[in-house]
UniProtKB/TrEMBL annotation:
Entry-linked Pfam families: RelA_SpoT
Species lineage: Bacteria, Pseudomonadati, Thermodesulfobacteriota, Desulfuromonadia, Desulfuromonadales
Origin: domain of life: Bacteria
Protein name (record): (P)ppGpp synthetase
SUPFAM superfamilies, per the entry: Nucleotidyltransferase
Domain RelA/SpoT: 52-187
């Protein structure tokens, strides 16, 4: 029963907390699973972390004392501490980019009951003081429909707090919490912290801009169509093809060309990046059109070799990267003689002799 006796209410809260501690953990884990599922099914994009915690009971009491006790007692309003701790269960979502925060927030708003929203990004950006970490805080609860489901009924009355941050904001929050006595430190230290905070903010924006620029590069590489035959650029697809084919090969246009010839293979970003660098080390002027031509002219021969090799060595693999290496060797043995290591090169050259002899 609510009272104005703080010592009594502390004892009551500690008892309530200990009696329900395991249930709090189950609720936290259930909320994390649900949010994970919602995020995966949405268009939020890559999320680096979804984690949760149950707030320490003494921290809950300190928060109540700091934020609510004086006002409630001044108004002679009775209270129970548990009714004022909206973040007893806390969930944190960390996105790669700042503009994912609003998308993630909308997903949650569409599935949970909103109690309160605190936009610390807007709050800090509207002042000259850059102190403090940014992020979106939301106090949420289960909707009536969700609360009626058997898997949620045991903790249907437990609200929870969600913090949504970008990866950079999350890093800054860790550092920000380590800075002691922020309101009392000298102005020169405050200025240094503000400069550091601004650098973090700039990094967040730059990462987003780099992502956007990267996506634009990928989009540009889809302008020129890819075919299975060499075409006369002046008579077929015109200037767009001429400009695109004249570009030095890079990860973006490599994916465009290789993806056309190996449609069922998923090229991993970091492997593509490394493979393209291997090509450019041997020929730093190698163009997208050269890659296209090397595959058109030689892929059929390489596939014949691959079939014979795999028939004789069924335990081995012959990936699209391996096929492209062999095509590059055939395209220009003088430049790409080292694209194959000694053993594979000797086997391929031996096979080529027999293959070409049979063609005569």
């Amino acid at each position: 029963m609510a009272s104005l006796d703080f010592e009594l209410e502390k004892r009551n809260f500690r008892k309530y907390y200990e009696n329900n501690r395991q249930l709090f953990e189950k609720a936290k884990n259930s909320y994390i699973r649900t949010i994970n599922s919602l995020i995966r099914q949405s268009d939020v994009g890559e999320v680096t972390k979804i984690e949760g915690r149950v707030k320490d009971k003494e921290e809950c009491i300190k928060k109540f004392q700091r934020k609510y006790q004086i006002r409630l007692e001044a108004d002679e309003q009775t209270y129970e501490i548990k009714n004022y701790i909206s973040d007893l269960i806390g969930i944190r979502i960390v996105c790669l980019y700042e503009d994912q925060i609003a998308v993630a927030s909308n997903v949650l708003k569409n599935h949970f009951k909103i109690i309160d929203v605190s936009d610390k990004i807007a709050a800090i950006e509207s002042t000259e003081d850059l102190f403090g970490y940014k992020g979106l805080h939301m106090d949420l609860a289960l909707t009536e429909e969700m609360a009626s489901l058997s898997k949620y009924q045991a903790f249907a009355d437990y609200p929870f707090e969600i913090q949504i941050r970008s990866m950079i904001q999350d890093a800054w929050s860790v550092l920000d919490h380590r800075i002691k006595y922020k309101k009392s430190i000298p102005n020169d230290l405050k200025r240094r912290i503000n400069v550091l905070s601004a650098l973090f903010e700039m990094a967040d924006r730059e990462f987003k801009e780099i992502r956007n620029a990267t996506m634009e590069l990928i989009h540009q590489e889809t302008v020129a169509p890819i075919s299975d035959a060499l075409e006369d650029s002046s008579e077929t697809v015109g200037q767009a093809w001429t400009e695109a084919s004249g570009k030095t090969v890079n990860a973006f246009n490599f994916l465009r060309v290789a993806g056309h010839f190996f449609k069922d293979f998923e090229f991993e970003d970091y492997k593509v990046d490394n493979f393209v660098q291997d090509i450019l080390k041997l020929d730093n002027a190698f163009k997208k059109s050269d890659l296209h031509k090397s595959l058109i002219e030689n892929l059929k021969t390489v596939r014949n070799y691959r079939d014979d090799f795999m028939a004789a060595n069924p335990e081995n693999t012959f990936s699209p990267y391996t096929s492209i290496r062999h095509c590059l060797f055939l395209y220009n043995p003088a430049i790409f003689g080292r694209i194959l290591s000694k053993g594979p090169l000797a086997r391929f050259e031996g096979w080529l002799k027999g293959f070409r002899a049979n063609l005569r």
